[in-house]
Task: inverse folding
């Protein structure tokens, strides 16, 4: 399945809304888009995963990489996810201890 990525500036945050699946085949596009946002000067990034039905470890690695790049410049990455398979994967990987995770957009 494909991954749709929509990016919008909201106040001092950049919100990236994903729809589809984040896996080995779609993670490179996500990585490229996140890198573009960070390189473009965004310091506070929100990734909305509420419309993502599946995420594997490749997607987790992309999120972690973006988190580390943002932290280097005192920025942050936060996640929006509802109960379901994606939040379960984030929880099992203990990334809910790394990223702020909420069920709604801030």
Result:
């Amino acid at each position: 399945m494909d991954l749709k990525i929509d990016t919008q500036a909201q106040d001092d945050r950049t919100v990236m809304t994903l729809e589809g699946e984040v896996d080995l085949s779609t993670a490179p596009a996500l990585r490229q888009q996140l890198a573009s946002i960070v390189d473009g000067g965004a310091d506070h990034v929100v990734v909305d995963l509420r419309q993502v039905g599946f995420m594997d470890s490749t997607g987790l690695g992309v999120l972690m990489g973006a988190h580390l790049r943002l932290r280097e410049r005192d920025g942050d990455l936060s996640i929006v996810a509802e109960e379901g398979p994606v939040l379960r994967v984030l929880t099992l990987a203990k990334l809910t201890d790394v990223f702020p995770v909420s069920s709604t957009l801030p």
